[in-house]
Every structure is written in structure tokens, then in C-alpha cells.
Amino acid sequence: MLLTADRVFSGYGKVDIVRSVSITVNEGEIVSIIGRNGVGKSTFVKTVMGLLPAHSGSIRFQEQDVTRSKANDRARQGMGYVPQGHGVFPTLTVEENLMMGTQINKKKPSMNLLTIYDYFPKLKERKRQKAGTLSGGEQAALAIGRALAGYPELLILDEPSEGIQPSIIHQISEMIRKINRELGITILFVEQHMGMIQELSERCYAMDKGVIVGEVGGEDLHNYDRLKSYLTV
Amino acid sequence: MEDLLYQFMNNFAFLILSAIGLAVIFGMMKIINLAHGEFIMLGAYIATLATKAGIPLLLSILLSVVGVGIFGLIVDRLIISRLYGRTLDSVVVTWGVSLVMQQGILILFGPSLETLSTPLGSISIGGSDYSLYRILLFVTAIVLLILLYLLFTKTTFGLHSRAAMQNAEIARSMGVNTNRIYSFTFSIGAALAGLTGALYAPTMAVSPTFGGGFLMPSFVTVIVGGANPLIGPSLSGGVLGVVSTGLDATWGTFFGRLGLLVVAILVIRIMPLGFSGLVEKLSVRKSRG
């Protein structure tokens, strides 16, 4: 098991938004967490990444308890994170953003920028451009490329489809699948875009009001109505 | 003409050296350090006391840089680290730090120190004498800007600190220990203030209120320059240097200082993000092609 979250409670301040959430992610899997806006998906993945403290419960990554580790330590241990809204550093150039990724863990080999450019050729064309001037799709590519540059074991993506034209969402999905297949990087992503969920997920957890209300896998992932029921009020 | 140029160099050096430590701390950490003047004063005390003890001035200046840098690190670990991201709270707390430092120095060393004489003598151009030390201060200000530019654009620390300045949370998720970056940044800002104090110690009377004379020009330079700790002070130092030199020469020092405040008010009205905001807007436009 690459990642195990066991009865995790977390939130902002003392208020629990995520309540007793347990999930597992196996090595090489693509797992999604789905649900409507404001049900606690992002809060949960931020807790997994160490950006929010777990009020109780435990998080294990690569068989180690990381519940109390800081985000920067988890990143060095092998968690890559692509935040909601992509979170590029707007006044750094594309190349400087990618350099941030290559310096995550100096003891571990990072990914060559040329490999990143192979996956995202547009970034090579724009490497001297300020990241804040890129389009939504390009920023998504940069955020994924930046996380990838640290060669993570687990790539966590928070709503990768947000702010991207529908025509580009399919390309981003394909790219994430390619990264998973070719580089063996495990993917955990939060999403509410039905197309991306169905196209990418091998297994998904449905979340509502801060708790896991269902787990969908196999053939059920093609059951549009069942998935839709988790995404609508 | 030589007089005006000399006066400009003098004003530019004073503005840059006053502001640079404050600009680094505010630009990178969004901490408004009201104890900045007292950090400068501490640098002046260390340099003066060390020189009086027989240490050469250059070594005394280095001692001030290291001493105030370490002092800044201690203040950061004990106090400032609890205020990261709390700009307004930092104003009150650093004001408290400034009072403690000023009164502490008064109790320890009395109301003033025996002043140092200005080294290096003067050169005569066109019948007027110009202090070589003041010219050296101008060169130091330029060299300091270049060194800071290299530190913040060509090193890993610089890249990480610029990233942390833009989005600390994302920087943390990229493996950056932002607290360490902030501590180091505060220490650099303090060390730069210490350098300023040490450099100006041989030119002014050193007393517990020594830093007060630097506070207004430093804040005006940072406000007019904007958040970028490199572009901001360089441009505002240049513009404010020209304004205060012109007014100094025409109507005297009082109007020179008044001019700084008028420029600050105008810049805030026209360009709320200061010169660095304008430069960043232009560079984004250029980057878009």
C-alpha cells in the first residue's frame, strides 16, 4: 500500500470539515475523490499533503507514519502536489517554476527538464515566459510538470480540470494517464468533472459533507447515473 | 555640476543603504519592521565600540554585519517567527522591539558615544573638496544592489525565497522549508541594517536615537519602490535621490525631505504598487508579446 489514510479528521482551526475519512491507494493506481463543491475534498488532500494538520487519525505513506510531518518533508519523501487553480508562481518564468520541482529533494534524482518538455512541448516554447501569462491549460501543464520534476511516487492533483477549456480537459487526462503508465507514478486526484473522472479513474471514493459515502470501481465507473448522483445535490 | 552629482551620489547612497534591509524583509516576508532604525543603530554601536577597542574599521564593519545578522536571527526565532503573514501585528511588535533596544542601549552605554572620524580624507575637483568615504558609500550601495540581485536571481535560496514570497503554501509543497527561508531573510535584512549603521557611524554622532534619522527615508524609499526588494529601492533611490538633490540645492534640506514625502504621496496615488509594480506590469506585457 502506498498511501493509507485512517479515520482522518481535519479542517481549518478547530472545526472539522473532514470527518473520519479512510482511503487506501495502491502503488501504480489512479484513484479519484469525487463530490460536489464544498464537501471537503480539497481539505482532505491538503491534509494528506501536510498543508493542513490532521486533528486525529493517521496518514501512512510508503509504510511510514507521516501524520505529523510537514508538507516540505512529505514532498521530499515523494509526494507531488498540484493545487486547485494550478498554483503556478506567476512572476517566475516557466523554467524557474520547473526548477522548483527539480530541487524538491537533492538527495534523490530529479527529472530532467528535457523529459518534462517531451511530455509538455508547449512549456519548452514558453520557458522564458512568466508563468502568470500562460493560458489555463498551459498553467495546468506547468503545475503538473513542476510536480513531476521532483519524480514523486504519488502525484496528488486537486481538480486538474478547473479553469480549463473543455477541449483541453481530454488532453490533460491523457497526459496524466501517460505519466502513470510510462513513469509508474501513482495518481490521487480530486475532481467533479464527469468526463475526467470516467476517463482516468480506476477506482474512486465519493465524498459528501466531509465523509466518504461510497467507493466505486470496475464496471460501476461507467455507470453515469451512479457517479452523477454523487456530484449533484 | 560636480557638486550636484556629488550630492546626488550622497543622497542615493543614503536612501539605498537606509532602505535595503527594510525592503528585503518587507518584500520577502511582508513584515513591517519598525525596529529597522534600531538595527541600524546597533550596527553603528558595534562598529564604533569595536573601532575604539582598536579593531580596524573594515573589520569592525564586518563585525557589525555579522553581529546584527545574528541578533536579527535571534529576534526572528523568539518573536518574528510567530508573526509570519501577520503584517499589522508585526508593526506593533517590532515597535516594541525598537523601544526595548533604544532604552537598553541608553542604559548600557549612556546618551552618546565618542564619534569616529571619517576615514579616507577628500579629493579636490574644480576647486571643491569631496569626501572619498562618501563616494565609497555610493559605490557600496551599487555593489550591494548587484550582490542582492545575484543572490535573489542566481541562487537556489533566491529562487526559493521568490517562490515563498508569491505563495508560501505551494512552496512548502515543493519541499521548501519556508520558515527557514523567512528566518534567513530576516537575518539578511538585519545584517544589511547593521552594515548601514556601521558605514554611517564615522559620519554622524552615535546615540540611542541614531536610527531615527534613517527611518523616514527608508520607509519612503520602500513605499515608492514597492514590494520587489531589488527593483523597488534601485528605482525609488534614483528618483528620490534626484528630487531631494534638486530641492536640497535650491531651497535647502528641509524642502529636500519634504520633497520625498510629496513624491511618496504622489506615487501611492498614481502607482499604488510603487515602481516595482509598474515594472512587473510592463514585463508581463512584454512577456505576453
From TrEMBL, chain A:
The keyword Nucleotide-binding applies. CDD domains: ABC_TM1139_LivF_branched. InterPro entries: AAA+_ATPase, ABC_transporter-like_ATP-bd, ABC_transporter-like_CS, BCAA_Transport_ATP-bd_LivF, P-loop_NTPase. GO terms for biological process: L-amino acid transport. One of its GO terms (molecular function) is branched-chain amino acid transmembrane transporter activity. Pfam families: ABC_tran. Residues 2-231 form the ABC transporter domain. Keywords: Amino-acid transport, ATP-binding, Nucleotide-binding, Transport. The keyword rRNA-binding does not apply. PANTHER family: HIGH-AFFINITY BRANCHED-CHAIN AMINO ACID TRANSPORT ATP-BINDING PROTEIN, HIGH-AFFINITY BRANCHED-CHAIN AMINO ACID TRANSPORT ATP-BINDING PROTEIN LIVF. Belongs to the ABC transporter superfamily. This is ABC transporter ATP-binding protein.
UniProtKB/TrEMBL annotation, chain B:
It is a multi-pass membrane protein. The chain crosses the membrane at residues 12-33, 53-75, 87-110, 130-152, 181-201, 254-279. GO terms for cellular component: plasma membrane. The keyword Nucleus does not apply. Keywords: Amino-acid transport, Cell membrane, Membrane, Transmembrane, Transmembrane helix, Transport. One of its GO terms (molecular function) is transmembrane transporter activity. Belongs to the binding-protein-dependent transport system permease family. LivHM subfamily. This is Branched-chain amino acid ABC transporter permease. It is found in: Cell membrane. InterPro entries: ABC_transp_permease, BCAA_transport_permease. The keyword Membrane applies. Pfam families: BPD_transp_2. GO terms for biological process: amino acid transport.
